[in-house]
Q: What sequence folds into this?
């Protein structure tokens, strides 16, 4: 019989069936994810080529990585894409959510329209926007056909602004999800708060800025983590739209890893790049974990 204290079962045996049922999942996560991560990090210090082998070369792969112009360009592109994606997706998503929160007519229809792009794969989104941004039959061709023959809009063919063409496709697909997350947060605000602000004569923009947004901090933090994790892993959009071109102007870290491992057959270099991406993810996850769980523990 389980030990009891004050007539209650001990914490160890509470919800025992659910704990036993979770054992396969825990073992799978431990072996596949944790084990695979450790395996990747270890082999990033080797000179593995076509096949992995434990021939350690120290930090040679990392030195070669950070001396690669292709890797440096991919990091720069990821930074530009990431910062602008975070800013625009949060702003646009929140504004759309605030508009839908006004109990407008056909709200369900508008919500479906805005969220629909998220249901598409990134490959489909990339191909669609590759056609839209194509200067021969996309936006540029349509505008020139209307009489503005000097109009130029070909971001995917200009190495100076190609990353912004990819950004447009990313925002089109991901903003709908941000809108839904923000709308759920807004619907969680007590109606009495809105009534009190109207009685006090507080302008709506001040209500959102100084009352509503601070109350939605958990929603914003969770949304930031979701967006950031997607930014670090961006690959499909780039492959579908530009394949890293023109030249290497639109390279991103995930594509660098794929090219190193499967095209150049340099597993050690791919593992080193993967490890740097892991470090980037940890930089995002650790502050989020502290904000979500550390403060709760301190308050408790």
A:
């Amino acid at each position: 019989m389980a030990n009891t204290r004050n007539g209650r079962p001990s914490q160890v045996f509470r919800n025992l069936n659910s704990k036993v049922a979770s054992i396969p999942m825990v073992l799978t996560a431990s072996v596949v994810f944790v084990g695979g991560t450790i395996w990747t990090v270890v082999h990033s210090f080797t000179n593995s080529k076509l096949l992995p082998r434990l021939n350690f070369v120290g930090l040679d792969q990392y030195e070669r990585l950070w001396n690669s112009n292709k890797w440096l360009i991919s990091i720069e592109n990821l930074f530009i894409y990431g910062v602008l994606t975070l800013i625009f997706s949060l702003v646009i998503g929140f504004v759309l959510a605030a508009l839908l929160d006004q109990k407008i007519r056909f709200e369900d229809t508008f919500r479906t329209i805005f969220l629909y792009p998220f249901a598409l794969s990134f490959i489909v989104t990339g191909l669609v926007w590759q056609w839209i941004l194509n200067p021969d039959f996309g936006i540029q061709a349509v505008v020139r056909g209307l009489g503005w023959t000097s109009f130029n809009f070909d971001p995917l063919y200009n190495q100076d602004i190609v990353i912004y063409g990819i950004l447009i496709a990313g925002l089109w697909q991901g903003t709908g999800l941000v809108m839904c997350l923000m709308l759920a947060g807004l619907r969680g605000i007590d109606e009495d708060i809105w009534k009190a602000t109207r009685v006090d004569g507080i302008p709506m923009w001040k209500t959102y800025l100084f009352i509503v947004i601070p109350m939605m901090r958990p929603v914003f933090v969770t949304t930031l983590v979701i967006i950031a994790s997607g930014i670090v892993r961006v690959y499909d959009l780039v492959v579908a739209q530009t394949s890293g071109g023109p030249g290497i102007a639109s390279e991103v870290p995930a594509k660098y890893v794929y090219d190193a491992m499967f095209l150049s057959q340099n597993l050690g270099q791919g593992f080193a790049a993967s490890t740097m991406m892991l470090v980037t993810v940890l930089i995002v996850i650790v502050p989020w974990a502290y904000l979500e769980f550390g403060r709760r523990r301190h308050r408790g």
